[in-house]
Amino acid sequence: MSHHIVEVKGLRYNYPDGTPALQGIDFRILHGESVAVVGANGAGKSTLLLHLNGYLPSKEGEIRIGDYPLTAKTLSSVRRTVGMVFQDPDDQLFMPTVYDDVAFGPLNLGLPLKEVEERVDRALSTVEALHLKHRPPYRLSRGEKRSVAIATVLSMAPDILVMDEPTSDLDPKARRHLIELLKTFRHTKIIATHDLDMVLDLCERTIVIYNGQVMADGPTGEIFQNEELLARSHLEKPLRMQGCPVCAKSKMG
After folding, report:
1. CATH of 2-252 among 3.30.360.10, 3.40.50.300, 3.30.499.10, 3.40.50.1110
2. Which of 43, 51, 146, 221 has the fewest CB atoms within 10 Å distance of its CB?
3. pTM for the whole structure
4. What is the DSSP code (8-state) at residue 98?
5. 126-152 pLDDT, tens per residue?
6. Domain coordinates of the chain in residue numbers?
7. Which residues contact 141 (CB under 8 A, 6 or more apart)?
């Protein structure tokens, strides 16, 4: 299943004003892995993700999806393989109804209408949003929009799921629902997030980025126990690993 592999070598990118965003990123993600990309604001997480299916072209370095380098010639096939869920679901939902949004990708693949309808129903059912099928996206809650945005990607049947801050702006119930949903996916998952407690739930491996460079890449538990690394990367331990401050005070008393 080499088509599920993501490999990045020497990836560099500067913002239009010349500020370095990515400074020689290297990693390899294998079939079925669930990998978190974490870092402080401005570390380069979103910029990195936008390279993985060609939304930002790589000026220097190499990206391989499966057996093929990401180039202008392979872009359309790569985008069928790598499904991208943006940080803001409003960037992904632009059609009059939920059905139209989820059907948009399959229709553009030229699939028969019956198959498109089956894909829409299957994708919406997967995220428990089939009841929203005929609703206009602007009438949805933030959590509902997030679920539908994921369905627009699932309808394309990608092998690799890339998500940027999937739990941002979600209330606790919607966040927990999303985490439980993502646990069921057998896709290769790459998730950029500030939600380190979610990382503990979903990702056995974590890549830490700081100032556009990989600071560490390894088992999530080991990464989050390394307080020196986290401090250098302007991160803190997940809340559930920090202990209860009230309990700590009572012990001191």
Report:
1. 3.40.50.300
2. 221
3. 0.89
4. H
5. 888 999 999 999 999 988 999 999 999
6. 2-252
7. 174
